[in-house]
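User: Predict the structure for this protein chain, please.
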Amino acid sequence: MFELFKDYQNRMSQFSANVKLYLLALAFNSIGVGMFQVLYNLYLKELQYDEAFVGQTISLKALAAVLVLIPAGIFSDKLGRRKAMITGALTSGVVYVLLSIFQSGNIILTFIFLNGLFNAFFMVAQSPFMMENTSPRERMHLFSINSALTMGAWMLGNILGGWLPDVLHTWFPLLTAMKITLFICSIIILLAAIPLFKIREPRAREERRFADILQVLTEKQELLTIGKFLLPSALVGFGAGLFVPYTNLYLANEFSMSSSLIGFILALSQVTTAVSTLLVPLAVKYLGKVKSILAFQLVSLPFLLVMATTSNLIFATAALLLRTTFMNSANPLTSNLMMEEVGENVKGIANSFSQMAFQLGWAVMGPISGLIITAYGYSYIFYLAMLFYLGSALSYYFFFRKIDERTSPGSLNI
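Assistant: Here is the predicted structure, written as structure tokens:
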């Protein structure tokens, strides 16, 4: 274990200035998003909005991402990853500020939609940026660090998002305390743009022609390769869209948890995921990428079953932590696999298609899940999510298992 972390330390010291600046920006963005993630549904609940309205916000944000991800991917491929990420950080940060101010349902839905639009620019440029700024030897480690840092920063954001309202509630009404916390999270997200401005992209990237991107994208083999990633991405999106946005409400309604305790539980899940993610290169070394994806996703299924059936707080919390840990540990693997398999000129668009498929699941399932919870409670959403996750795991295996066969996992140089 010590040797593994020593290896990470050595690889990180060799990362380029661009990569280090990107990781700093990612930390700021993820802290802010983590604060918003743990608090906003509770804030809507304090405003007397029900789960059906929460479902509308989830659906609209995901629908906005579906609509803009392809244009955002083209923007990223043509004008550069740096400009795409700066656009996303600045515009989504401004929208988060507005969401912390306004309380009207229609205005909230409008800004949630805009947030989904603008956040897509940051999201879609990340994986191609990492591919373009690393060597093959560094890549798997950076994708793992990227995922671990995201989880770690989310952890800090979850803690702050749950803890600050309770602290501020000493001096302010709870609703005001929540508003102040949401405003702070907006400022942190805006800070992510500062290191991004210092990134230097190659001039060749800035001059890439739109016609060249479209020409590569029309090649039959390229489309087939991209298409193979869409089904499992969509299935994960459908499964996650059923319950992930409602996790804080699940803990609050089923177990009467306070916002600070919910923030702590969600933060702890990010810690366990971050640690697990750092072990991903070791799993790849012995299993291969595709078998590792299969293993991580399948192992998460029993914990969904526990969440569906238990009324015990300790069991539910443990299941939540372990499900989050194993399922999210597959994320750097799926991202890295796609970036290695698609063509150089269409990585941004390919990532857009994959993210679009994932967000489509959230857009469709967000409101449906809200209706299911309102009518029948939380159990059924976990059962349905198990089916979607199983389909995703099997899809990755059947589409890409030959990759492991040709790379001989035990001899991988990672």
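The chain has one domain: 17-192+219-406.
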